[in-house]
Design goal:
Beta-Lactamase, elongated, five-stranded mixed sheet, alpha+beta
Length: about 375
C-alpha cells in the first residue's frame, strides 16, 4: 500500500502526516492499549509518489502475560476512491440543494425519485406531492404528441436532449424553460435514471417577444410597421393566389394633418395619430391589417374580398370616420383622408407593385381636391368612384 518493507527503519508513526500522527499518538494508541483494538479512518503517506492515501485502519495491541503491550500490528484498506466518491457525492448534493436551476431525477420507468428546492420554486410543486409520479403532469398542452415522441427518441438514441419547452406551474400558469434531459446507466449499460435540469426562461421569452413586437410595430400607434405590413401582404398574396381570391391594398394619407401638427405641436399631433389608428381599426375586420408606414401615412390589407366594391365600401367608411371631428385635449380637430386602392391580381402581382400603385392613386386624389378615394387604373389612371 505504501511501499515499505521490514528492513525500513520506520516506526508506526512515521507513515502518518503530522496531524494524523498526533491523532494516532494521543487517541488511537491509548485506546488500542486500553481496549486491545482501535479502528478509524486516517491518512497516510505513500512512499511511492509521496501522496496522501485515505485508509480504513485497525490497530491491534499485542500484550504479554503481564498485560504489557509488546507491539502493535495494523491492518489497513485503501479507501481513497471511496472518499473521492463521497466528496463528489457531497458536492453534488450541495449543488442539488443550492442551485438556481430546477433538477429532477427519475428512475428507469420515468417516475420521479427526487427534486431540488429550485424545482419547487419554479413549478410550485413540493417534493412530497410528486414523488413517484410521472412528470407528464407538468405538460402545458402547447406541444403535440410528435414533439414528445421526437424528444424521447433523441434521448433513447443519443442519451441526451436539450431544448426549449413550455410547461405548466401548479397554479396553472404557463412558463418557458430551457431543459436538458440526460440518461444515467450502470456499469453494465443498463438505464437506471433520467436527470432533468432546467432554467425558467419565461422572462427572457417575454423580453424577446417585446423586442420582436418593437421590431414589427409602430411605437406610437402600436400598429404593424412597414416591415410587418410587407410580410403580411406577401403572405396574403400567396394565399390569394392559391385560393383564387382578391386582395386589396388601401393607401391612406391624412389631409390637413401638417397644419394641425405645426399649430398645436407634436404632442397633439401624436395623440391625433393614435386616435386615427383606433378609428381605422374599427373600419375593418379582425383578420385585416391596418399599418402605419410613417408620418401620416397608413395602409390597409383587405384579404379574401369578393370584388373591388368591397374595398370601395371600406374606403367610404374610412372617409366618413376620419371626417368626423376629433377632440384632443379640448381641441376640436378636423382632418380628412386621401385614399388610393390597388387590387390583386388586376393591379400587380407582387406587394411592391401593389403598394406603389395604391400610392400613385392616393396622390392623384391629393392633387384633385383631397378627401376621396381612387382605384388605380393602368389605362387612364382617372377612374374615380
Amino acid at each position: 500500500l505504501i511501499n515499505i518493507n521490514s528492513s525500513s527503519n520506520l516506526s508506526l508513526l512515521d507513515i502518518y502526516p503530522t496531524d494524523e500522527r498526533n491523532l494516532i499518538r494521543s487517541q488511537a494508541l491509548p485506546i488500542a492499549t486500553r481496549d486491545g483494538v482501535w479502528s478509524g479512518e486516517v491518512t497516510i503517506f505513500s512512499h511511492i509518489d509521496h501522496k496522501e492515501i485515505n485508509i480504513s485502519q485497525v490497530i491491534v495491541a499485542h500484550k504479554n502475560d503481564l498485560g504489557q503491550v509488546e507491539f502493535f500490528s495494523t491492518i489497513a484498506r485503501d479507501i481513497t476512491s471511496l472518499k473521492t466518491a463521497e466528496k463528489a457525492l457531497a458536492m453534488f448534493a450541495k449543488v442539488f440543494e443550492s442551485t438556481q436551476e430546477g433538477m429532477m431525477i427519475t428512475d428507469a420507468k420515468n417516475d420521479i425519485q427526487n427534486v431540488n428546492p429550485a424545482f419547487t420554486a419554479i413549478t410550485g410543486y413540493s417534493k412530497e406531492e410528486i414523488l413517484g409520479k410521472n412528470p407528464r403532469f407538468l405538460q402545458s398542452g402547447q406541444h403535440d404528441i410528435s414533439f414528445y415522441q421526437k424528444l424521447w427518441q433523441t434521448i433513447d438514441t443519443v442519451g441526451q436532449w436539450q431544448g426549449e419547452i413550455w410547461n405548466r406551474r401548479k397554479n396553472g400558469e404557463l412558463y418557458a424553460e430551457w431543459l436538458t434531459i440526460s440518461t444515467i446507466k450502470d456499469d453494465k449499460g443498463k438505464l437506471t435514471n433520467h436527470v432533468a435540469i432546467f432554467s425558467d426562461i419565461t422572462n427572457v421569452k417575454m423580453v424577446e417577444k417585446h423586442l420582436v413586437h418593437l421590431a414589427h410595430h409602430d411605437m406610437l400607434t402600436g400598429l404593424p410597421n412597414r416591415l410587418l405590413f410587407n410580410d403580411r401582404l406577401d403572405q396574403a398574396l400567396i394565399k390569394s393566389h392559391r385560393d383564387k381570391s382578391i386582395v386589396a391594398v388601401i393607401f391612406i394619407d391624412l389631409d390637413r394633418f401638417k397644419p394641425i401638427n405645426d399649430t398645436f405641436g407634436h404632442r397633439i399631433g401624436d395623440l391625433l395619430l393614435q386616435a386615427v389608428a383606433e378609428r381605422l381599426r374599427g373600419c375593418v375586420r379582425e383578420e385585416d391589417t391596418v399599418a402605419r408606414l410613417g408620418g401620416d401615412e397608413f395602409t390597409i390589407i383587405l384579404e379574401e374580398i369578393f370584388n373591388s366594391q368591397d374595398a370601395a365600401k371600406i374606403a367610404q367608411k374610412i372617409l366618413t370616420t376620419i371626417s368626423s371631428p376629433f377632440v384632443i385635449e379640448g381641441h376640436k380637430l378636423n382632418i380628412g383622408a386621401s385614399i388610393g386602392i390597388s387590387v390583386f391580381p388586376l393591379d400587380g402581382q407582387d406587394s411592391e407593385t401593389l403598394v406603389k400603385h395604391a400610392d400613385k392613386a392616393m396622390y392623384k386624389i391629393k392633387q384633385g381636391g383631397r378627401n376621396g378615394f381612387l382605384f388605380y387604373d393602368s389605362r387612364l389612371f382617372l377612374s374615380i368612384l
